[in-house]
Amino acid sequence: MFKMFKFILTIIIVMLVLPLSNVGISAEANCDDEIYEIKSDLYKLNFITSGFNDCINEEFEKVLEEFQTYYEPVELTGEIDEQTLEHIEFILSSPLKNGNYDDDTVELKEFLIMLGYGDFSKTRYYGPQTESAVKEFQRDHNLVKHGIADGPTLSKLEYEAMKPLEEG
Fold first, then answer.
1. 142 FRET partner, CA 20 to 30 A, in 4, 22, 35, 150?
2. Among 141, 41, 40, 137, residue whose Cα is nearest residue 94
């Protein structure tokens, strides 16, 4: 009889937990290494600015909401879902960040120079000087200051660079 009870309990637990695996990690996960890695990534993106642990709590849920609000195509859930994880990875794997070479870096540098954020060679290399100029631009325009030329940064940069042309 005890084995039957244990078997039924296991089935109930699996039925309750299985749906959570389809949406990523939810608050029920509480603490683990994967949470720590996600927090580490959000720290790199400057959404977490101080020490962090491997647990989900209200503060972390607010950070997730801030991230999801900032990157509008990401659905606002306040939870770690697949879309949020993919967007974090997308930003961190951007070619427009320190240490990378990319053709778009040349245009990025042209915009930065045009707007007074540097005077550097227009090469494909996105180095520390470019990162510093991008961070300064992000700070001046109330963007998240992480030094990666992400979507919001590129949109604002292009808008600011083209504004004088539109005003005539």
1. 35
2. 41
Buried b (16+ CB within 10 A) or exposed e, 91-126: beebebbeebebeebeebbebbeebebeeeeeeebb
Q: Cα 104–105–110 angle (5° rounding)?
A: 100
- What are the φ and ψ backbone dihedral angles of 142, each rounded to 5 degrees? 55, 40
Question: From start to end of 33-167, where are the E strands?
Answer: 100-101, 125-126
DSSP lists the bridge partners of residue 126 as 100
Q: Is the pLDDT of residue 168 over 80?
A: no
The contacts of residue 26 (CB under 8 Å, 6+ apart) are: 20, 79, 80
Number of neighbours of residue 157 by Cβ within 10 angstroms: 23
**Biggest alpha carbon–alpha carbon distance for the chain:** 85
What angle is formed at CA 88 by the lines to CA 156 and CA 145, rounded to 5 degrees?
A: 40
Q: Quick check: helix, strand or coil at residue 33?
A: helix
Please name the amino acid found at residue 40. S
**Whether 35 contacts 56, CB under 8 Å:** yes
